[in-house]
Amino acid sequence: MSINDEIIKKAKELETYVVDKRRDFHMYPELKFEEERTSGIVVNELENLGYEIHRTAKTGVVGILEGEEEGGTVALRADMDALPIQEENNVPYKSRIPGKMHACGHDAHTAMLLGAAKILAEIREHINGRVKLIFQPGEEGGLGAKYIVEDGHLDDVNAVFGIHVWADLPAGIIGVREGPLLASADGFKIKINGKGGHAAAPHLSIDPITVAFDIGNAYQKIITREVNPLQPAVISITRVIAGTAFNIIPEDVEMWGTIRTFNEKVRDYIVDRMKQITEGYANSMRCKGEFTLTMENIPPTINDSKLAEFGREVLKDLGKIEKPDQTLGAEDFSFYTRKAPGLFILLGIRNEKKGIVYPHHHPKFNMDESVLWMGSAIHSLLAYNFLREKK
User: Fold this and answer.
1) Where in the chain do CATH 3.30.70.360 domains reside?
2) Could you tell me if 81 and 144 are in contact, meaning their C-beta atoms sit under 8 angstroms apart?
3) What is the CATH topology of the domain spanning 3-183+300-390?
4) What angle do CA 210, 212, 215 make, to 5 degrees?
5) Packing angle between helix 208-225 and helix 264-284, nearest 10 degrees?
6) In the chain, where does the domain assigned CATH 3.40.630.10 lie?
7) Class of domain 184-293
8) Residues with Cβ < 8 Å from 342, sequence gap 6 or more?
9) Which of 112, 268, 278, 317 keeps 20 to 30 A from 346, CA to CA?
């Protein structure tokens, strides 16, 4: 039996372990940088397997496995944090923490990487080089990946791999795409200051609401008339704060939203134009306009083309491989791919026959657990084969 076949066999044998771990994490979700219980379980599992343990990014864990032979270094990443969502699923492993839920699949990511940790420890004598297992906190808005990179854990890494369970793909489908896969993300806030007054006498006021609406519409013209149509980009206004009564023109209006692109030059252009439009149009309408970014930019996740080709070849005997659609969602895995060549793989978990049809971040999000063993196999196959070729 080849090592690849042995890895797949071991992964199938770990199906119950991976599902049990996923359900345990699911019942006790922890938000960004609160992952004390989760990381404690991870540390205990890795120590029992002989991994060298490093704590990072407050609640993060890096486990290092040294192979028998000298070689390169590969990193495998799983995120651990949950979301502030009240779960609506009626399942035995439903979240037991009010207002918190693993609605994105990070519970599965952690469990799958723990399964890989077992497999890799068992085939350690065949590993050429070093494997780093990164259990990352704070992916959901916490930029946990950025802090792990700043702590130096990617400095010696030749390649980094990650997996995201994916609600848009049928269960068991492996999604591999070269180039941009996920978008960059920015948050923004604009504030328009006018002059309040009675709604029955608008001429005595300077209405910031009408100005804010015009500015919001002008933003969309950036997308439709200034950005190349072949460069996907989105500006979404998601929150508007204004007024206290039906008959009062308010003094101020705030609008919040997000910007998504695959191209960093396009992103920079959009940000500059939004600032110009906000300030310039507000001034022309006798208002004051302010445009600010509300979060640190998350870069686009761009898969290395050579690693994508490598991944398709290595994983071809594990399951059906498809080229997934790009999405304007964002992932802080992109901070890793800025530091080392990376490949972010999608694992389909949708199963309409089982009623598993809800998207990520939905209170009824769930997954077909029968395919989670594949995540452990994917991690292990990629790590073993990359290091064998790197030797």
Assistant:
1) 184-293
2) yes
3) Aminopeptidase (3.40.630)
4) 110
5) 150
6) 3-183+300-390
7) alpha beta
8) 159, 160, 161, 162, 301, 303, 304, 307, 333, 336
9) 268
Centroid of chain to Cα 12: 26
Q: Please say whether the beta carbons of 344 and 164 come within 8 A.
A: yes
DSSP annotation string for 11-56: HHHTHHHHHHHHHHHHHS---TT--HHHHHHHHHHHHHTT-EEEEE
Q: How many residues does the chain have?
A: 391
Token pair, residue 97, equals 């923490």
Distance CA 38, CA 135 (A): 10
Tens-place pLDDT, residues 305-346: 999 999 999 999 999 999 999 999 999 999 999 999 999 999
Would you state the pLDDT for residue 24?
A: 98
How far is Cα 112 from Cα 102, in angstroms, rounded to an integer? 15
pTM listed for this prediction? 0.94
Strand partners, 239: 256
Are the C-beta atoms of residues 86 and 80 closer than 8 Å to each other? no
CA-CA distance, 375 to 17, in Å (whole number)?
13
Alpha helices in the chain (DSSP H): 3-13, 15-27, 36-48, 106-122, 144-150, 208-225, 264-284, 305-315, 334-339, 372-390
Q: Is 231 exposed, middle or buried (0-12, 13-18, 19+ CB in 10 A)?
A: middle
